[in-house]
TrEMBL record:
Keywords: Methyltransferase, RNA-binding, S-adenosyl-L-methionine, Transferase. The keyword NAD does not apply. Signal peptide: none annotated. It comes from Aquibium oceanicum. The lineage of its organism: Bacteria, Pseudomonadati, Pseudomonadota, Alphaproteobacteria, Hyphomicrobiales. GO terms for biological process: RNA methylation. One of its GO terms (molecular function) is RNA methyltransferase activity. Residues 178-198 are annotated as: Disordered. This is MFS transporter.
Amino acid sequence: MRLGGRLAAAIEVLEDIRARHRPAADALRDWGLSHRFAGAGDRAAIGNIVYDALRRKRSAGYLFGSDEPRAAAFGALFLEWGETPETVKAALTGDRFAPPLLSDDEIGALGANRLEEAPEAVRADVPDWCAPFLEARFGAGWVAEGMALSARPPLDLRVNTLKADRDKVLRELSGMNAEPTAMSPHGIRIPPIKGSGRHPNVQAEPAFRKGWLEVQDEGSQIAAALAGAESGLQVLDYCAGAGGKTLALSAAMENRGQVFAHDSEKQRLSPIFDRLRRADVRNVQVVPRPEELAPLEKRMDLVLVDAPCTGSGTWRRRPDAKWRLTDRQLEVRMAEQEKILAEASRFVRPGGRLAYVTCSIFPQENVERIDAFLAANPGFNPVDHAQLFESRFEGKSGSARIDPAKGISLTPAYSGTDGFYVAVLSRAA
Ligand SMILES: C[S@@+](CC[C@H](N)C(=O)[O-])C[C@H]1O[C@@H](n2cnc3c(N)ncnc32)[C@H](O)[C@@H]1O
């Protein structure tokens, strides 16, 4: 397929996403199933246009003065692919699969509308209702944070130190432009790929099959490290899901001590068994049923709550979620977070720690939940987060927003990671 066919396909997928309010990944998969002739390169390029269009939807809409999928798709090419109206015209002319060429009106709008003059929420590419939350959290820098959340993400990997070290994995991945991450000592980064390219399928690599690495954003690696799992501890991973953090905790513990991996949704835990086996993890017990947790009450050295959240810190990777999110869903998440913190805290032993993590950038899901928990639970106190960060990531404190009493925030603009929040509380002895 040439650019025109790919662009037409992307517009079709964007129309499907809009009409049926469905996740981008589902719409792309269905398109692929009904267009089996399309090769891997075509699918990657179409996916890139769709995801770029969703990331920069408001900017593109402003430039064209239109909210139509066509504007978003063409906009992606101009905003992210380095194309111009002239290069796109040249590429599309004579291609019978291409969408109609830009009209005089569209070209006129592009010439007249200047993004620098657009409202802040448009430049930040965020929904209007979310803008006040970003402004409350990041002050004058909030537009830059929104813009960074609208850029393509890198592919981050965590080296499984139970089986390999970073140099060994970097040698295995040579030729993939892989580099050590700036903060996580076990992280590897493959920078964002430009244009129609795509990241290598690391899951097909022998190193992955041998359990030497996991796909995990550097922010998630940092959050797991800040939780403070150490060799020999008794740890409860209360919202373990597919086990991304569980595996990181176990590696930090060098397979010694015990991690109990729980999730209220049993099916979410199902990938964990294969992952544990592949990674050679031997100190994890998966505990799906809440009643089986009863003996652990007040016994855990560390309880990790990797809470369900809006995922606003991961908008680079799931830009469709940015537009589907509603204020009602945010409220539901906040209530869940409050309930889970209350439930999970029962398992912390006197003198033990409770680590709360979200991949959200909204203060309502982060510091406000911790403030509410602390107000209701005077037996818990925040650790000194500045000291905590420095103890784990010596000399790197400039890459995180740290409030000693309120927690640690990571963001794409400030830290080069997905958006994460971490607060660690200790229970009075
Ligand atoms: C952010 S995800 C966890 C991701 C996982 N820790 C990882 O690193 O791959 C949040 C998880 O919390 C689970 N959850 C939601 N409500 C819960 C509850 N009341 N108790 C325990 N887990 C819950 C969800 O099923 C979901 O898997």
